[in-house]
Amino acid sequence: MSEVQLRYKTQAVAKPYFIAAIGLFVGQVIFGLIMGLQYVVGDFLFPEIPFNVARMVHTNLLIVWLLFGFMGAAYFLVPEEAERDIPSPKLALALFWIFLVAGALTIVGYLAVPYATLAKITGNDLLPTMGREFLEQPTITKIGIVIVVLGFIYNIGLTILAGRKTVINIVLLTGLVGLAVMFLFSFYNPDNLVLDKYFWWWVVHLWVEGVWELILGSILAYVLIKTTGVDREVIDKWLYVIIAAALITGIIGTGHHYFWIGTPVYWTWLGSVFSALEPIPFFMMTIFAFNMVNKRRKQHPNKAAVLWAMGTGVMAFLGAGVWGFMHTLAPVNYYTHGTQVTAAHGHMAFYGAYAMIVMTIISYAMPKLRGLPAMNNRAQVMEMWSFWLMTVAMVFITLFLTAAGILQVWLQRYQPNALPFMAAQDQVAIFYWCREGAGVIFFIGLLCYIGSFFVKGDNNGTAAAVVPG
Amino acid sequence: MSEIFTKSMARNIYLGGSVFFVLVFLGLTFDTTQRLPKTDNRANLTEQVALGKMVWERNNCIGCHTLLGEGAYFAPELGNVYQRFGQSKEAIKGFIKSRPVDGIPGRRSMPQFNLTEEELDAIAEFLKYSSEINTNNWPPNING
Question: Rounded to an integer, what distance in angstroms lies between the CA atom of residue A40 and that of residue A44?
Answer without folding.
Answer: 9
